[in-house]
């Protein structure tokens, strides 16, 4: 079976058991402070498990693209070294939300693996939770008994809490799980040694393929467990591992998932791939590349560009790891990694279509990253060579610097060190790594208290599309502590507060006791921000005033003026996007957006700088649409498929529900899927002004703009500036002309001044030559000049040298408070050991400065002009001393 067939068989099987097949969620996670990337199939259903969202389908199955490169699940360092851990992999999963439980889940997994896929029964092992008395957790006898119906009892193994008890986090849903392992060793080996001992023992040929989690409990902050009101099943099977078993290979990389990539790499590098578990560096490098391209390409396709912070930095580091391996072991000194994108896009065509649809964009982003990293890499290698040449040992801190700054995987640093006959202090490296990890943990650590229930009720109705005030009840609240700051989070049954999403910032405002009537009531809760966490709308406040009656009705009022400014910017963003597509082309896709009360920031795909004329046209179109005062058309609850048919573009990397909201400004102009809040008619925007255009990344441009009040203030500012200039210029008719002529005049004057100085200096020559004082054999000249042009002084010094024998010349001058000295010595004195550079260092002390130069000519600058006279006197003393020696 091919991978496509294996994947399809899974989905068909569970569809046949009454499961709804749903699409994969994007790999980049939004609205979850605990997670950067999707790392399991269950992530997109978290809100159901937490009881925060209704169950749409009781049975669901899908294939989910996952990434395990950060946080709790981080397999990165294993990848490429072993044969069955990947950065990005597909997790096949089936779910029951309060529907079937252990019996069916176990029976169906057995039926699928042995019946549909035909895996021999004597290659399978299953594990069941053994219980943990200390934690008060019972043995999962039920699962044990259900398994007994299908598999020999001596193939059912008991496992501990680490392997067989699943928890979402420190608190929240949890329960026992049951894993299925496959022994892939050849028959002879299997006869020799019982596979049982190799289960969960990191043996590359006895691997876990499927985990069935039975969500039974909810864990509270104090560690105690509550039985969940509805019990769920959550399963995950790694597609690449399954494929390897069904295609009878000893490594995931030998399957049709990875072979097209590996063969291409092998062909282009002209190095053979030796297959399987070989630990040749070239093999590891090919596996790393074939694996990493998948993680990088899908992260970018889902909206996460490589960058220097957070999730973007994680992606950048993975990319660099791949490029570094390719460079060192496969000889790819020029950008190559990006060329894998088309192969990958073909493989996933029809499975995850977002890659094919953005193939050029993704490839271009990777190419640019490669170009800049190859430059960094060269610097890093130089740094290494220099460091080693200075006789340094490769200590942990240096290895860490290479790892952190230059993206050198530690095994490569070790190799480079070995080539120089050195070893790396691995303990030191690990310590430095641990320190960094601890630091980032501390920076992101949030201490979250349990929810404290206040009122009963349905959660979360958002009323803010229609009203800015709502009477509501507080349902629950909790205390959180992050970065040493305490805050409260509040959940209401209904709320006009918009929770940050789709680029629009969250609302601020107040909760007042409804009974108090007056909005000025002192006893109010000040809402500083509103955010989504999974499906919940969370209101943030720094303080709940003492005596606030939480159980009673509250009046929720958002900050209206702020919201109105935000709406101007949000609607303007829609008008801007449509105008960009009109002026630049339909390749323009949103790649990021920020809308707050001050301005809007819009990132979009486009491969060249937007020219000034293009920007002017875009701005003119938007302002035209503003003046047309187009009425907002808002449609809620449009079926997603219908919206697509009507030509509304969905964003990649965005997770849409079955029903969507469409925001239209003129059916023929702007139609977007959007959850944000908008102006009633475009005239409210007032005026739209672009303030900057720049590059964010390869192929991504950024426009920043302002609207309404801010645009008005900006224009007023500009006007004021012009008025001030006019006054300064004495109110000319044409300011441009007047400034131009000022500049012309200025440069003419400058030239004249320079000419004057040269002439003056030249005129000085004879005067100075006549002034030369005989000190022994030396002709000594010292003079303070009253002009400051350095070139003119240099000329003067050189021409004096031409005409005066045995010259020792010292010139001092003051250039607007900055004193300078010049010393010129003629060749005959230089031959006798005079040295202008040494002399000037002495003299420079008098003007609190320093300088130097050649034996015959030297200059110095300083800070104290009042020392110039003293410097000249000192020069005379030096001349006297030297004359005696000469
Ligand atoms: P392992 O112990 O092998 O790392 P796990 O316990 O981390 O596996 P789960 O979190 O239970 O795995 O994930 C469910 C399934 O997803 C696993 O049975 C496996 O088939 C697959 N899987 C997990 N991690 C990876 C990975 N890094 N690459 C490929 N497949 C994976
Ligand atoms: Mg794991």
How confident overall, as mean pLDDT? 92
Helix/strand structural class: alpha+beta
CATH class of the largest domain: Alpha Beta
Low-confidence stretches: none
- The overall strand count is 36
Shape designation? globular
Ends apart, CA distance between termini: 99 Å
- The quaternary structure here is single chain
Largest sheet: 9 strands, mixed
Percent range for helical residues? 25-40%
CATH superfamily of the largest domain: Bira Bifunctional Protein, Domain 2
Bound molecules: adenosine-5'-triphosphate, magnesium ion
Gyration radius over CA: 37 Å
In the residues, how many domains can be counted?
Answer: 4
CATH topology of the largest domain: BirA Bifunctional Protein, domain 2
Output the number of helix runs.
25
**CATH-scheme architecture of the largest domain:** 2-Layer Sandwich
Strand content: 15-25%
